[in-house]
Each structure stands twice: as structure tokens, then as C-alpha cells.
Amino acid sequence: MADKEISQAVIGRLPRYFRYLGDLKEKGVERISSQELSDIMKVTASQIRQDFNNFGGFGQQGYGYNVNYLYDEISKILGIDKQHSLVIIGAGHLGKAIAGYTNFTRRGFVFKGAFDCNPELYGTKIRDVEVRPVDEMEDFVRKNQIEIAVLTIPKDQAVPMAHKLAECGIKAIWNFAHVDLEVPNNIQVENVHLSDSLMKLSYNINRYENT
Amino acid sequence: MADKEISQAVIGRLPRYFRYLGDLKEKGVERISSQELSDIMKVTASQIRQDFNNFGGFGQQGYGYNVNYLYDEISKILGIDKQHSLVIIGAGHLGKAIAGYTNFTRRGFVFKGAFDCNPELYGTKIRDVEVRPVDEMEDFVRKNQIEIAVLTIPKDQAVPMAHKLAECGIKAIWNFAHVDLEVPNNIQVENVHLSDSLMKLSYNINRYENT
């Protein structure tokens, strides 16, 4: 497959292309040149051509890109043409916010289960999904062949939880806990460290004031 | 100032150093060699030395780094030795989750106001802060000289909101809306595009299965 050769830097840019192409699709745009896309996305046309050349080009000289085709191809490369089941561990505000994103459902991420260690939450519902005791997580993940676990729990709980998830065959962890997880290589981890992001913002405020 | 020369790549790594140094500090560790830090953080000792050399080194040959000193210096570089006031626009689950992070308060980010356009939320409280109508945002930001606005609203509302924020003198926007904002250069923007992150995870699941 062509995507095996693609660098993580290019991959990191694909969701943004996908987002803009989705907007164009919604507006009924059928074709777009790399220059037009460059103007909207504020990246150079040459960067766009280079990125798209990684998976065969997608376009014809002087003709532009077919928006629908490009959208579909990128969705295949990103693996969002298939469904991915997920559970959320930690049914607090962050867990609820994530479960509520309609975008995720649209992109094939199917919210199947929610777990918490707070008995007051057991039986309450997040988008028709019942919150269950966290002790039931392992059975649930195994039985339902869950692919992705979203960790929205404190960092001291996240480390042992990641080990349990590894044991019951999870494929990927989307980690919001403020800690780096150690898991076997066959488990994909994507971290969202919100504090890190806020600190970068603080750095940039500081830098701007001192220039 | 030394930090003017530091590349964004190094800056991007600073919050992680800061996090690990904070953990070491909590454990009472006073000194650490670049090799020990390398073992914990899973980056090369040479990378650590290079990164720290950007701001004067911080260490003595064969002696290691003073954990407290390094922690304080990085906190100054990141601008989190000062207080930064923030408001949250969008008092849904995500806004509430962000307001609830005690870590942010500890790092000098002071939560001053919350705004929403849903009348049912007016007067309800998020951590002692009353949710106000979004129409009152501009006055509030001006009067209280708010530095950071956190946008946890849908993307179609985020674009006009960013323009309003620019007009009332905000310094930075922490943007959770699934859209790239266009603001003047004097406003710092840090995006947290959750869908992009989830798509990268999906790509990596796919890639792993196909290798």
C-alpha cells in the first residue's frame, strides 16, 4: 500500500486537508486547483502538491483536483471509511463532551460504552449509552471487540488502566490524562495533553510581549 | 532574552520537560543527570542537552541538573510564573471540563468568566463563576483585561466570536472549535482540533493492521 511510505509529518497534515475538502464538498465545489486550495488553507501550493504526490498525486496538470475523489481517498488513508468502536473511560465532563461530538459518529467512530468508578453515575446515560462500573470494562471490551479506549481519567488511574486495556486486546488509546503511557508496541496511543497546549499559548503570549 | 532564539520545536518540547521535572520535584529529587532524565522520558540524552543548551545549559558536567532550578527556569520561559486571566466561551461539557482542571489554576491560569448563548445556563455556576449571556462578553473582557479566551463553541460561531475577541483586546485564543481562525498577528492562537487527533489514531490503527 502506498500509505506505508508516508511520513508522520504528512499524516499529521491529512486531517486538515480532509476538513477543508469536507467544507468544499458541502459547498458543492467539484474541482479545485492546488493554488486555490493554497489560498484557502494558507499553505504553499507546492507543499500541497508534494503532500498529495505521496499517494499518487490525485490531480491532473491544469485540471485541478476532484474534490469528492480526494476526500474519499484521504478518508481511506486515514481509515475513517471503516467503523471503529470506542469506549470512554471516565464519565465526567470531558468524557461527556467527547461522547457528544456528532462529528466523530459521522466519521465512523461508534460510541459503545462508558465506564466510571463513581457509583452515582452508574446507570445514568450519555447519548443512550449507560455508564457502567469500571470493573465491568474488561469483559465489555473483550465481548464487544472494542478497538479504541478514550481515557478521560486522572493520571494516577490512567497508567494501571492502560495496562488492563492492553491485556484485553484494545487496539488504540486516545489519552487525555496528563501522563505518558507505556503500552506494548501493538497498541497505538494518541495523546491530547491539554496543559501542554495551554503552556505553549502562554509562551507565545510572553514572547509576543517581549518582542 | 535567551528565549527569543528558541525554535518552536524546542518550545513544543518544553511543557513535557516541565511535567517530568514537576514529578521529580514532587518525589523530592534534587539533581538529575541528562542520562537519567533520558531514561525516564525516552528521548536521547543528547537531545536533552541540546534543548537545554538553548537557554544556557542549566547544568554542570558530571554534576547533573538542579531539578528545582530547571523547573523554575522553564516555568519562566513558558510564562507560567505569572498569572493569566481567562474566560471560557461555551459553557457545555467541554467548557466545564476545562474550567475544572485544577492543574491550570496551579499554573497561574485564573478562570474569571464563562459565557454561553443558552438562557437556561445563565446564572448557573462553574467553579464559583457565574455563566453570563454571551452578549456581555465584550464588556467583561475589556473591564477585566482578560488575556485568554477559550473557545468551546461550534465552528460557525467561533469565527465571528474570534473577530469580536480581537476587537476587545484579547491576547490569545485557545481554540477547540473545529475551524482555523483568522485573527490579527498580535493575537496568539493555539488550536486543539480533537477530530484531527482522532483521525491520526485511526490512521495508525489502519497502518499497523496493514503491516
Automatic annotation (TrEMBL), chains A, B:
Where does this protein bind DNA?
A: 16-55
Keyword Calcium applies: no
Chief location of this protein within or outside the cell: cytoplasm
Subcellular localization(s) per the UniProt record: Cytoplasm
- Indicate which residues the UniProt annotation says bind NAD(+): G90, A91, G92, H93, L94, G95
What Pfam families does the database record attribute to this sequence?
CoA_binding, Put_DNA-bind_N
Q: Which UniProt keywords apply?
A: Cytoplasm, DNA-binding, NAD, Repressor, Transcription, Transcription regulation
Q: SMART domains, per this entry?
A: CoA_binding
Cellular-component GO terms for this entry: cytoplasm
**Gene3D superfamilies to which the protein is assigned, alphabetical:** NAD(P)-binding Rossmann-like Domain, Winged helix-like DNA-binding domain superfamily/Winged helix DNA-binding domain
Q: Which GO terms describe its biological process?
A: negative regulation of DNA-templated transcription; response to redox state
- Residue ranges of every copy of the CoA-binding domain listed in the record: 79-180
Q: Which domain of life is it from?
A: Bacteria
Instruction: State a single Gene Ontology molecular function.
Output: DNA-binding transcription factor activity
**Assembly information from the UniProt record:** Homodimer.
Q: What does this protein do?
A: Modulates transcription in response to changes in cellular NADH/NAD(+) redox state.
Could you say which protein family the record assigns here? Belongs to the transcriptional regulatory Rex family.
| NCBIfam families given in the database record | PRK05472.1-3, PRK05472.1-4, PRK05472.2-2, PRK05472.2-3, PRK05472.2-4, PRK05472.2-5
* UniProt-recorded name of the protein: Redox-sensing transcriptional repressor Rex
Q: Which organism is it from?
A: Butyrivibrio proteoclasticus (strain ATCC 51982 / DSM 14932 / B316) (Clostridium proteoclasticum)
